[in-house]
Amino acid sequence: LYKEALEARRELFGNKHPDTLQSILNFAILRWKQRKLEEAQRLCKEGKDGCITYLGQDHPYTKFALNLERRIEEASQPKEE
């Protein structure tokens, strides 16, 4: 469902629109929770880069994307015992 929503928003609004960027980040969250970390990282980077470029560094979506990127990165690191 997330993938279909993202595809529809890309088609309707384009990649620069805040709704599309939010959908990209939502899909990244889903993949992160599913432990599909490589895909989550790729989606998060796409969303983060778009947010920085089109919404600016101080936009709430950008700040959210930066935090999400950090959390996905942490999940990708091997656990220390």
Strands, helices and their partners?
Elements: H1 2-13, H2 18-33, H3 37-54, H4 60-76
Helix pairs in contact: 1-2, 2-3, 2-4, 3-4
Rg to the nearest angstrom? 13 Å
Biggest pleated sheet:
none
What is the 3D form? flat
Relative strand content: under 5%
Average pLDDT over all residues? 94
The secondary-structure element order is: HHHH
Query: Helical residue percent?
Result: over 70%
Helix/strand structural class? mainly alpha
How would you characterize this protein structure?
There is one protein chain. This protein is mainly α. The protein has helices at 2-13, 18-33, 37-54, 60-76. The termini are far apart. The mean pLDDT is 94.
Kindly list the characteristics that best describe this protein.
mainly alpha; 4 helices; 81 residues
What can be said about this structure in brief?
The chain has 81 residues and is mainly α.
